[in-house]
Design a protein that fits this description.
With about 80 residues, this protein is mostly helical. It has two domains: about 35 residues; about 35 residues. It contains two helices and no strands. The chain is flat and about 55 Å long. The two termini are about 30 Å apart. The relative contact order is 0.05.
């Protein structure tokens, strides 16, 4: 497999298979990790705190998106890529 330039036709199948395998491993790791995080949260805090956590998460996401929008607006379209 060549590492520079666009993939050659003979390498596209192998490259696609590697990308699919990498995404499978990444999603499997995410799923296992998320199950552990959920179990620890429910054990330590309990399910009754979920509504408050979702509201806090929404607020934090809103503030983060405002900051990102302001930063990218100041940088301009050329420098933000």
């Amino acid at each position: 497999m060549h590492l520079s330039g666009p993939p050659h036709p003979e390498d596209e199948g192998r490259l696609a298979a590697l990308v699919v395998a990498l995404m499978f491993v990444a999603m499997a790791a995410f799923t296992i990790g998320q199950s552990g995080i959920d179990a620890l949260f429910f054990d330590r805090v309990g399910a009754q705190a979920l509504p408050v956590m979702y509201l806090l998460q929404g607020g934090a996401t809103f503030v983060a998106m405002l900051a990102l929008t302001g930063t990218l607006g100041r940088l301009g379209p050329r420098r933000s890529c």
